Amino acid sequence: MFEKFLDPVFLEEYRTSKKYEKIRTQYKELYEKANIVPMPVTFSKLRMFSECGERYEFEEAYNQHLDKLVMCAYMAIIYGDEKYIREVDDCIYDVLSIYNWALSAHIPDLNEENYYELDLASTAHGATFAIIYKLLGDKIHPQLKKRIVTELRRRILDPFKAQAWHWEDRYNNWTSVCAGFTGITLMLMFPEEFDKLLPRFNENMRKYYEGFPDDGVCLEGPGYWGYGFVSFLAYALVLKDYTRGEIDYFKLPKTKKIAFFYQNTVLDKDVITSYGDCPMDVKTSAVLFHILKKEYGKDFYIPTESRLALPVSPLIHPLLYIEYYDPDLLEDSVPLGECYMENAGWYVKRTPYYAIGAKGGTNGESHNHNDVGSFVFSKNNKQVFIDMGGRPYTKDYFTSDRYKYLETSSRGHNVPIINGQYQANVRETRSYTSLENGVFRVDFRELYDIPQLKSLVREYRCEDSRVTIRDTFKIDGGGTFTERLVSFDKPQIIDGEILVGGVKVKFDKHLAKASYTEDIHHTTSKAEPPEMTVYCINIHTLFPEKSEFEFTIEA
How many domains does the chain have? Predict the structure, then answer.
């Protein structure tokens, strides 16, 4: 499938045609940026994760080296100049010399010599070197060419054959990324070994598929959908070519269901349902949408360019982007109407005045936050009542301390606080959802580990310019029930109404009283400050043991 990049006619067209002018310019700028001497990948940065739980300094330096390798390889493949070939040689030598291609957070023991972890990064490295070998093999230095084969055998093939890896029993993006890039590496470099191991790869991808409910929802959110699915598509395309069409994942109905996840859940041009650890400002690789648009045609939604990321690493992504690039693709209007994803328990409603995404589900999902029953409310292309997404990854973020943070706890989500308590992280509990006569209903009593709480049902009635949310509950012996709304916009509370972010929240002021507190969100975004003020709005209800309370959001 990489024949185009060995074809002088196509390469000349790419170098000169107006069709590719935009992405040529973008990649040239990326090459110039990546070709600045990257930060050194030092042991001091590597050991930070094991010693204090910090991982970003190492990953930033590490990714700079990989991006430089990919961009120099891209220039060498497209232009073939001796200058770029020699730069690739230096990059190959540099990256092949890194102690372990895995990220510091994924290396279990720094004391164990000659241990090669297969993780999200190391397997992507393998695929990049395999493609470099295939497309530039006769141009790079012979010693480096031999060493690529040796290192891919030592770091990818042998470790994969030696054991079953933890991600082979996962049902999320880890499986598609790690298995997919390992499979691509073996198909290109060790086809005889791949043929023997194909049943194992088939089983890996079956588990990845099973991680999606039948409605195709990625429970980890749009960011992880894009990351895992684009890696899966890369593997699927190489495998389809390798088997001469015998194995074609595009023929499976669930592939289309997964493909349409983004457009089923997007709220506005720049607003996504940022559940779990998915950042609010996450961008999705543009290559994914170009591939899917070619496959599914006019029914498939293309987001605004501000939500698309130029594909960089690993090398297969920019090459696929060039392969599938269509300069005539224009962003689509966000589709209005509603979508109920019954299997996942998600609901989306889009009107000309607002959009809302509400969820049921469980608190046992991958990259879980305790957010069952919560919602995201959008107006004028921004989240008003927000889901912050995740916070910077540290060691304790993936331990029992995970739910002490605002971002992961239900105290940072738009759900009730009952008897002063937040949702419990009990993985076996679940919610029950339905959509009848335009009312989305979530029964989520199980999510609160409160024996006195006998029932809890939330209903969303979504009209053209307003949403009414009604909570019906029963607390034995009475108790307290506080509605929580979370926003980045500072609220005003005037005569029993809450004004925030251009919307108005109304409720019966004889039955409740509003107040707010401030907290801090630690962002993962490079476009935002590292910390942002969060306003936690509380509507304190005054009720006996059995009652209901409703509030209306007017857009």
Answer: 2
